Amino acid sequence: QVHLVQSGPEVKKPGASVKVSCKASGYRFTTYGFNWFRQASGQGLEWMGWIGAFIGNTNYAQKFLGRITLTLDESTTTAYMELQSLRSDDTAVYFCARDRGTVVSLYWGQGTQVTVSS
Amino acid sequence: ENVLTQSPGTLSLSPGEGATLSCRASQNVGNNYFAWYQQKPGQAPRLLIFDASSRATGVPDRFSGGGSGTDFTLTIRRLEPEDFAVYYCQQYDNFPLTFGGGTRVEIK
After folding, report:
1. pLDDT digits (tens, 9 = 90+) for B77-102
2. Is the separation of the CB atoms in A35 and A97 below 8 Å?
3. Which residues of B touch A95 (CB under 8 A)?
């Protein structure tokens, strides 16, 4: 069965970077892409970007351009989301999710709390 | 971007009652690439419906999705206690992927 396991909570200072990992198992890694989302406390879901697993092509939300990098490591079947120049309003739970061919998100990681505070 | 507007914001219902959730898109959603997710506190969202009307594996048949173009609905035939949650609609026809603001289904 498909499992996505994300890295643990992070506390960062403003201006720092964070890299969240998403370890995938239970399927052929290069077959499906990943979306990344985030959710601030009590708020809705926000899409951040998508990476295709076959050739690693990306599509980022406009608001994160220049600050976000999505990557894949096929050798460890892990997807990564790096967000730079963190601000307090980046405090949120970050989710990875695997698509099902179209980019709808079928399988989700458990979420990673990222807290940005001085 | 395709802005999705969900209504109502909150539904107060009793177990056994039916629920109809709506989502309107500001632009046509092609290919019926439209989804509904359920989210409970402290959990990741769960895909319920994709391609506007297809149930994801393991989703009970009391959940059904409908609509096309710019207007979509999620119907829950008879609410079970575990169905009280927040529901989000999403379009995945075009980037950026967008979500509605959510409908909270709460116990009356």
Report:
1. 999 999 999 999 999 999 999 999 99
2. yes
3. 44-45
